[in-house]
Amino acid sequence: MSIASDLIRGHTETIILAQLTIADSYGYQINKTIQEKTKQEYELKEATLYSAFRRLEQAGYIQSYWGNENTGARRRYYTITSEGRQAYRSRKAEWDTSKKLIDLLIQGD
Asked: Which residue of 60, 93, 94, 108 has the fewest CB atoms within a 10 Å radius of its CB?
């Protein structure tokens, strides 16, 4: 069963922040991790991912920097800021509440 992207679309930034709470990372790796965690049922389109990076950086939730790869192309890494950690905790709490309410509303008797 494929996960409906409409359901997840509004949570893209929170998903990215969640990944960055674990470790600094770059776009391809974040998307690969998302695919692995969802057993290939969900992936972010590249345009969606990088648009979210721009919004998060403009909001001060993440910062980017260039890695210094010895082989291959240089990668732009992202790190979460303290403001980003606060935003993640707040959004996660909102999600937990929403998930609980939706479960109550759509589960049959």
From this structure: 108
pTM of the model: 0.88
The residue with tokens 């929403």 is 98
For residue 45, which amino acid is it?
Answer: K
Q: Rounded to an integer, what distance in angstroms lies between the CA atom of residue 101 and that of residue 52? A: 27
Return the pLDDT at 1: 42
- Asked whether 31 and 43 are in contact (CB, 8 A), the reply is yes
Residue 58: helix, strand or coil by DSSP? helix
Which 3 state secondary structure label does DSSP give 5?
helix
- Mean pLDDT (whole number) for 38-53: 92
